[in-house]
Amino acid sequence: MATHKRIAELIVKHRRNTLSDHERQELEAWCGLCEENQLLFERLNRQAYHTDSLVEFYSEAINGERGKVRPLFPRQGRQRFVAAITYMVILGCLLFTGITLYSGLQKGAGKKSAATNSRASSALSNAVLPDVHRVQLKLANDRIVYLDSSVNGHIALQYRSVIYKQGDEVRYEWSNGDAQPELEYNTITTPRTRKFVLELPDGSKAWLNASSSITFPTAFINKERIVQITGEVYFEVNPQPVSPGTGQQMKPFIVYANPLPGGKGGGAMIEVLGTHFNINDYGDEPAIKTTVLQGKVRVSNRFGPLTDIVHAVSRLNRKAAKQPNEQSAVLIPGQQANVNGDGQLEVIKYADIQEVMAWQKDLLIFNDLDIKQIMQQLCRQYDLEVEYKEPVTGHYTLSMTRQLTVEPVLKALELSGGINFEIEGHKIIVSQ
């Protein structure tokens, strides 16, 4: 097992970008042992983590507090524990030789004072800025990798597929070989406030909005490329040629969207005939919405209740017969198909592409939406809850950046007239 001294050395080398391949693998293995290790690595590796934070960390260790940091180290005696922390502090301070202990402490004190003085002016302060939660990658063996705290570079291996991470993007590369790869599925899940990008083994890309997920094979070895999603995902599909004589120009790419909660119908099947499209499958929305930006897609409500992607592959391979009330439509750029909770399919010939794709461009665009639809989006973006004091009516139009805190967004809605908001912690109370 890696010693505290060794891990401290590896973290410092990571900050200096001087890790060897072997050392990187060693650090990744330690981070993957448990969530506590990953949390500690994330804390030590933050850009804003300077001398004052290290001193605070050292003080916590000396005082023997039972916080989230202490359990990361083996209980082999207080003396060894303090020595390990001291070594980590010394190494960390070498990274920031231009920062004095006095100025660091003064800076920390100033921050605390400013936060205290501003608390009265805002119940939220900066507590609901975007990007406060964690993105998870669930591997085929059920191991969870926290992507936002994983180091850049190679993070895992799934049979013949190598997984790389760079910033807010993960890439799967299938290493071709004589052996047929096993069919293994991974899942990426984003919490509220977070977005993430996935490059699939075939080079296709998927952008995940907040509160979304995608389940996919680590290698596309079947006749069809099949993935399953929840929430909202934008796809740019890479054409993959098939063998001559199949009668197809491109290996089919199929997306399954989960059924809406409480609906009598099933989910939706989206077969890609082109490249760029967006799917909105949030459980609190009235319909599964598929919008085409480039190429063509075929949307169907064929498959009824869908439990998981493996079941979907089995049904597709059996070429299931047409079901009662089955509907399908081929969409071209600018069109949208909605599959409601009862499984009914409706085609919108002229969708508002700017509004649909606002999330992917870090914008909030509401075009004539009622307040409940707006609050659903804000709750996902800022990790909030909403309470309605009374029935609210009216539609609103607004365009703002997603990089703001929620307060100016609510203020802009209030200025539109007919709506009021109260903030209590992470709850927004709506009234008219």
From TrEMBL:
Gene Ontology MF terms in the entry: sigma factor antagonist activity
InterPro entries assigned: FecR, FecR_C, Ferrdict_sens_TM
Pfam families: FecR, FecR_C
Domain Protein FecR C-terminal: 364-430
UniProt domain FecR protein: residue ranges: 187-298
Origin: domain of life: Bacteria
UniProt keyword Manganese present: no
Matching PANTHER family: PERIPLASMIC SIGNAL SENSOR AND SIGMA FACTOR ACTIVATOR FECR-RELATED, PROTEIN FECR
Protein name as it appears in the record: FecR family protein
Source organism of the structure: Niastella vici
